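ARCHIVE RECORD
Type: protein–small molecule complex
Small molecule: nickel (II) ion
Source of inputs: curated submission
Record status: active
Notes field left blank by submitter.
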Amino acid sequence: MKLDQLLTKMWNDYTELNPKALEIYNLFKQKEEKVINDHVAFRTFNHKLINIDNFAKAFVDLGYVKKDYYEFKQKKLDAYHYEHADSNLPKIFISELRLEDFSDSLQSKVNKMIEQISPEMIFKPDFCISGRGWGVSFQDYQELKEESEYAAWLSAFGFRVNHFTVLVNALSSFSNLEELNTFIKSHGHSLNTSGGEIKGTPEQFLEQSSTLSYNQEIHFTDGKHIIPACYYEFAKRHVMPNGNLFSGFVAGSADKIFESTNKGQ
Ligand code: NI
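STRUCTURE (tokenized, with ligand):
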């Protein structure tokens, strides 16, 4: 599979899960904007079969290189971002949950889910959007959520895009992130206000905002339920003293952005 094919499949899968992202994308297109994706984010577990390195293999095979490491102590997450030599291609941000830092009950639920994934699936180029290779009950989802919203989200959705992110620098209609946020809200979309609407500052070289997740109906083994799925993010990058545009991430900001899946709109 070629990279542009994979990116298209990722976008289609994502907008099926979050139709509001497509609505916002179309608002930009109505303004004749060219939408550039800053990054695409995925979630996984640090289990040896599906940890960041294994998850990233398809992207590395397509030319991506592992870059910076990020730690999220409170949420018990580790993350890396990957970049492609073609800077017009989105960065890939992959985080993983530290399973050993959770209860035996959570670890056992998650390990049972992972054991159900067909091993040949893991190294397929589109594993990152292969979805949920296991059955999960709504009760297990709720129990996982008591310990980790992140674990619960993964149990319900499996491997899907968590969010696409629009590079605000490439939009000509908005001079800053505040203007863009006002535009998004004026069209009826709710933003994540955890840590304020805008996370990060120009001094940190990265400002980010995001919508709240779309509420999607999901089939659990014990019935259908509507739960927060995925969100759309907006990133404004700033030039560093060395003259280069900052290409990394700010852990403190990403920590709050993660909470965009805590509730839906
Ligand atoms: Ni992000």
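CURATOR ANNOTATION: The two ends are 35 Å apart (CA to CA).
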